[in-house]
Specification:
With 151 residues, this protein is an alpha/beta fold. The chain contains four helices and four strands. Strands 1, 2, 3 and 4 form a four-stranded parallel β-sheet that branches. The structure holds flavin mononucleotide (FMN).
């Protein structure tokens, strides 16, 4: 499995007045989504939900004509400094993804709580339990891709 990171920062705030044509950054995002076999979303939790930046990106991806999230296998992971480790954010995300026709992986759920304790100063995940859950999730995602969109 090869993972490519996509930075959401260049995406403008969604505005239906400016989607014909899509801005260049949005076109790039939609193309990369369409080309991917699956999507892995890593999210913090902001005020009991996902970040505005992630919701904005999903809103751009949901627009016609191609709707690149429709039928796309998706897995999610999250880390937060709180005790619930993005549980509420991931529940919201699951609801939104289902609405846009994506196919979220059911389990495992990777919820990393008290994130300040499981990463080192360089941002490496150093907690063995969390690393194990991550491995389990990536293996499950590979199986999910084969099951829902075999190539
Ligand atoms: C505006 C804002 C709201 C947040 N709300 C929550 C929350 O509801 N639950 C939670 O567990 N963490 C919350 N956090 C903490 C973040 O999920 C995250 O752990 C923190 O921003 C550190 O992550 P970072 O180093 O990627 O920024 C919030 C952070 C910000 C900036």
């Amino acid at each position: 499995m090869t993972l490519e990171i996509f930075d959401l920062a260049p995406l403008p705030i969604f505005n239906a007045d400016y989607e014909k044509p899509f801005p260049e950054a949005v076109l790039e995002f939609r193309t990369r989504l369409a080309q991917a076999n699956a999507l892995l979303i890593a999210t913090p939790e902001y005020n009991s939900s996902i970040s505005g930046a992630l919701k904005n990106a999903i809103d751009w991806a949901s627009r016609s004509p191609q709707q690149p999230l429709n039928g796309k296998p998706v897995a999610m992971i999250g880390a937060s400094t709180g005790n619930s480790g993005t549980l509420r954010a991931q529940l919201h995300l699951r609801q939104i993804l289902t609405h846009v026709g994506a196919l979220p992986l059911g389990k495992p759920e990777v919820l990393v709580a008290r994130a300040e304790q499981v990463f080192d100063a360089d941002g490496n995940l150093i907690d063995e339990a969390a690393r194990g859950f991550l491995r389990y999730l990536l293996t499950a995602l590979a199986g999910w891709i084969q099951r829902v969109s075999p190539v």
